[in-house]
């Protein structure tokens, strides 16, 4: 954080308190105005029904607290010359953050029609919760925000992600006491065990206890204060309390708490950066306890409102029809003394703006909250350094994620000084075979070290915590502030962040439509330890459905890749790491897998996204194939190629085409996804009338859902995971789900007409092989040698792939 | 909890310690044996390669700690005559819990072929992590378990769910320090704010700090002890520490900690039940700090293993090939002195069994962990009391969830004494219009009460916390121990528990195949505040994809209902509340909605799951209809009926059939889902060759995924939510997603051949109506009167439904 020349902790004079209060009142006025008014914004006339919006859909409860925080952040940012941003956690905080952005001018800079005058104020009010306008939550449309206040739970993880590798940045984070009850938020408190006071910035959590959610008191607000302090100390924080409902007293207390917190942060960072002892510091947290709906109506229709859950939404619901409510609203608005706050033109007065910092220091204008402005292209080294040599398909095997690990190590290394790349994962980097990265960076860790520890590093950029939520939150915060990263995760458990990825995709979809938001690096998932290789973990670890989940979302944003081998994984990862504004889902295996394509072939194949593997089929080019064997995913590719090999041997006259799909969205109509094939392209690959036997990595019906409009859809027969999971061998998994080579050959025989009597014998041989498998596995507990040792040789199987 | 006659806290004699240690050693021996051996289980011969499993896939690290806990739970259960169960949180705890169940005999009772002798021990060893055998996690197959140890995060919430309304039950819960890093677990600590010491049992968390996850130290194990104590006190607990690596010392400390904890629990409950002050007690927590892989190999190949993450899985990986490793394994196994522990027949010795309780008090035999044994049918009152009168379709409106609230109130009331029904939700019971339940039960709350509070009740059975994870975890624990409940949730945010519901469905699928597991009550979701009515919350609150997620899962378990009005919701809810072993997803609106069906009609319609609404169409019965208008969900039903009304007016010669689908799985082939229609049934409803315009509540491609095999699939055209979300009016939402009445009429005109010139004019009128909508909404911010005030009248629209 930048150091200030003057004493950092000067307490404010009465005049400064007046100015802070004026700013706060102005923000409160604007928040109420947004909820209620569509005209007469400065109350130059008595309030009439036609000034009131026909649908009252905003939320007041949290606004005065957020306005207080913003006002006081303005003060310290300005006084101390800080680089700062704020993550606004509470739900429905839109009115407050929009009000502050409009006051400081950052709003009008990105939305010039919402100017900082009476006309702009009218627009500001009208657009709020209005059709086609802005939502009641802090959202991508809100300048200065990297966090949507709708779902709740991720503010603190986002704040930590933003602070990583931003040593000069203060990230304030307002946590509502509702949000604080969620699991992800509760776990995020421990993120301070991973924050490096040397290379990372500071996070200042501000726990706002206004006491209520929608309809209930909150758990933390009703804790005895001593118990709350124990909790926060147990989280590794030193609590600073600000409590009250008298504005001037609260302003003084808040200013003092802010100064104490920032002095403490400055000292911690100075000491760490001057080479002080590497002990984890006790970071400050501010506990702000003010009434919900503070300064709003104390009572409505005889029921208490201010300071209760009843102020959560619209405290006065009937203002358009009910004159008494309308009078109460007018009195409420006038209680802020708007005539002191806004000039004749409607612009905020100089006193209101006295605390507001300048230029990019304004919270609504910081480039950190529009991270694409700061993003630099990631230095991804040439893939040639990492590619595995492939002279013929299937002659060698590698662990694809292990090969990717070498590339990631190089990226880590190339960003050692820039520090703008992080790898996150729930304790699984090595389990997922990416351990090569430790050659370039250890794992972030600020707790005590033991002699037996390996790869832990106070300055590490690999982030491991056993929480997919925190991993995702960190990475989102990191990307949204202009950096790069990758999340490696067990395939089944990435569902833990289904809802988080929803929100991130929605964020990107909305951001892409905002010209002032610069593109950020894509959110890249490596899903491995996948459904087909959970031999010992069994059913609980078998779920390939994240792809289905993501493909429901905005096609502008989502990309799904299933590279079938090491070099295709490199090519896909290279593309993903360079890309912007996407969510890339890459599913790849960590077990040894046949190398099918050389790097050049892999690049060409990935560029097409789907293509014929001529070397694997038996077409002669003179006619349409008799059958298409398609595959997507490493295990299905192996089984399909083994099936092709069996067909080549046993039914050599059959013209078999093998198609491999890397990019699942290629299957979609091109009107529905930018990567979708035209019907002509699709038909050229899959034909319009030949049987297509498709071996797919996940739930088979996903392929139907993508391809149902295609001409050949009626001939499409998909095999995949159909929830037949258990603890067993790799080959037994494909047998149980009818994705094995023998079943695929039987599928071909069942679907290609006119194969004749020879096929009957082949079909029986395949069925016999499956029976043999069942007996073998029951006896030995391992796969039969004919599948365990099978290798591809192009013109057949190298060794016993009987029958 | 039952009281014991003798002093509860007698500390064990040396002889008792010897016996406890013998039990622990026996369990450790059996855990190691399961990981490694397939023969020679009692080491009667020197260990040879052929005794070793070909694939070593188990996990050792957590087992000695779990065995210690089980041994000492045995002791207190036996000494105090407790009713107890344990939730085993740590991953890969299978070997330990299976070992203990086999020792106490409960295993052989449910799996007689795994007898308590040498032959059974061989089977116990061989089946572990073996194809078709048992997984390395605690799982449904494990007697005494309600919790799968695979995904991690939910143990403590499950434990609280089990304790609710079980006043005499002690629920111990072992929390691994890996799991403790997850969000759901971190949030679960605060569940003690909802535990009623009068009507609920006790939860005894045992935080096991063995220091490591798969590959990293854990956050909590490396906290300074004082900071950890602050954290646990902040969670509302009093920590009791058990630390060490000397078995006898640890046995003494553990016995003392257990006694102290149980004395404290007894005192708390006695005081509360004797009418003591209603202050939330400080419940005990045991912090058990023992080495990971304790008693295993200290070093392997020169690297430290015991006490490090290297003992997580298989400490000696090469025992089949490597004679040195094999010798180390043999020495390790013999270090437990099996000859003292097992008799000649292989059965555990009397000393080993000295601490084991009898009968149903054994942790592996408690009926609470096989809750179906205790489950009683839920007293659901006759629906006639709650049904809304419907004399003609569409003449009145009700809030469906409000009507359901009356039914739930009656269920709450009917279970007031039994206390076996709970309603859970994230602070949204009233927001979801279910507030009638407060007439029969308040909301559980153990924190201080204020005068302004409403419906909070120390003994309440409505559970609200702002965490979908905790809600789900509570309910799962409650159902798995034999009770009933319903989870009401905003539709978009139920994705937060995607991964939890995966695991619960997997649990039910597996349990249904185990004859000894009795069926439990279904997990019922009410998803409301749905995608079409998030007017002010906007895009972040709009997601109907949970249905897609659930429908990927085992069809034996999943059911999805979209009742279109209040009476159908009652009928569906009645069925769901009475059902067993399902996950029922019910999507219903909370906004006023037309009443289409009387109760009798609703029952008949829901029994069919899908059917023709003759009164809404214009078929004359003499021929196939020209077009089928299908609908599923309340908003699509309204729009489809409005479209039918427009067609009746403007194209009266068109034979329109209206089909409503309540049960989405009816669309699936009957081979794939027990509710699936035969092709004959499907064709009779939807025809094989007529255009079907289907208005669906969620993502339109879901309908294709369900129906792609049907004869008429090529004619199926589905409208639904296509991620065109924003802050806007209800009608604008359907327009943006092309699900509005005008678009549906245009779809009909575009797809029915030969409609002639008149249809051209009608189509233009529809397009004009959409244009008028766009202008109106931009100007007024509300829906046009012609849609806002539209009502159905059977033979047309009652008032202006122009054009």
UniProtKB/TrEMBL annotation, chains A, B:
The Swiss-Prot or TrEMBL record annotates one GO molecular function as: magnesium ion binding
| Record EC number | 4.1.2.-
Q: Which SUPFAM superfamilies match?
A: Thiamin diphosphate-binding fold (THDP-binding)
Alphabetically list the UniProt keywords: Lyase, Thiamine pyrophosphate
Indicate yes or no for the key word Lyase: yes
Q: Which residues form the Xylulose 5-phosphate/Fructose 6-phosphate phosphoketolase N-terminal domain?
A: 13-373
Enzyme type, top EC level:
lyase
Cite the Pfam families for this sequence. XFP, XFP_C, XFP_N
Please list the residue ranges annotated as the Xylulose 5-phosphate/Fructose 6-phosphate phosphoketolase C-terminal domain: 590-792
* Cofactor names: thiamine diphosphate
Q: Name one GO biological process term.
A: carbohydrate metabolic process
UniProt cross-references to CDD domains, sorted A to Z: TPP_PK
What is the superkingdom listed in this entry's lineage?
Bacteria
Q: Which family does it belong to?
A: Belongs to the XFP family.
Under the heading HAMAP family, the entry gives:
Phosphoketolase
Q: Which NCBIfam families match?
A: PRK05261.1-1 (NF003616), PRK05261.1-2 (NF003617), PRK05261.1-4 (NF003619), PRK05261.1-6 (NF003621)
Instruction: Supply the name of the protein.
Output: Probable phosphoketolase
Organism per entry: Streptomyces cinereoruber
Taxonomy of origin reads: Bacteria, Bacillati, Actinomycetota, Actinomycetes, Kitasatosporales
